[in-house]
Design brief:
Elements lengths: L4 H14 L12 H12 L14 E3 L14 E12 L5 E12 L2 E3 L1 H12 L2 E2 L1 H15 L2 E12 H4 L10 E8 L4 H11 L17
Parallel strand pairs: 2-5
Antiparallel strand pairs: 1-4, 2-3, 3-6, 6-7
Helix pairs in contact: 1-2, 3-4
Length: 208
């Protein structure tokens, strides 16, 4: 989906006028065009197929190491992401940690990053974003379990209201074997302390 840049520019001018500003003054004259460019980047995931990066898989038994059989989890930590909260259109950003228990097929690690990027590049809430990532991986890969942990700082918390600048939000989404707390305990310990915005341990606040 391609954003309507001309419409965004027009509406940005109206917004500036609505707050009492002059969109034609030198400091704001290019703002409508900049906003159109910004929104095209921030919302590039609207209408995009998040499963598309997972279409190319690698056979474990017939791949580069044919004597290797899948046993343990594949864990990708500290994927930086940013999104836009749909409630106030303010950004939230942090780290995603993804793990899955592969069957006979695995996927390139970059494909997992792309799943996060596509789903984050649309108006979102963190809780839904984690669930969508987990569903996409679980439904389009040969997996026995999926775990998605998101740790992010939200502009609507840090920049408005109480302005809790050190606050971060932690969410977890699990599928398959990782719906059992004991099964995901090892992964939680491997992910380690949160890295997005402060010294918050992942073990705190996780559902058991």
């Amino acid at each position: 989906m391609t954003v309507d840049s001309q419409r965004i520019e027009r509406l940005t001018r109206e917004l500036l006028e609505a707050i009492g500003e002059d969109p034609d003054r030198p400091g704001l004259k290019q703002t409508p065009a900049r906003m159109a460019e910004l929104y095209a980047e921030f919302f590039a995931g609207v209408g995009a197929d998040a499963a598309e990066p997972l279409a190319r898989t690698i056979s474990v038994t017939r791949g580069p190491a044919p004597d290797t059989l899948p046993s343990g989890a594949v864990l990708l930590r500290d994927i930086r992401f940013r999104s836009v909260c749909e409630h106030h259109l303010l950004p939230f950003a942090g780290h995603a940690h993804l793990a899955y228990l592969p069957g006979e097929q695995v996927v390139g690690l970059g494909a997992l990053v792309r799943v996060v990027e596509i789903l984050a590049a649309r108006p979102q809430v963190q809780e839904r974003l984690g669930e969508q990532i987990a569903d996409t991986i679980a439904e389009h890969l040969d997996t026995r379990g999926v775990l998605v942990v998101l740790d992010a700082s939200h502009g609507c918390v840090t920049m408005r209201g109480g302005r809790q600048t050190e606050a971060s939000t932690l969410t977890i989404a699990a599928r398959g074997e990782y719906t059992d707390a004991a099964a995901r305990a090892e992964l939680i310990s491997l992910i380690g302390p949160s890295t997005s915005s402060g010294p918050h341990g992942l073990e705190r606040g996780l559902p058991g």
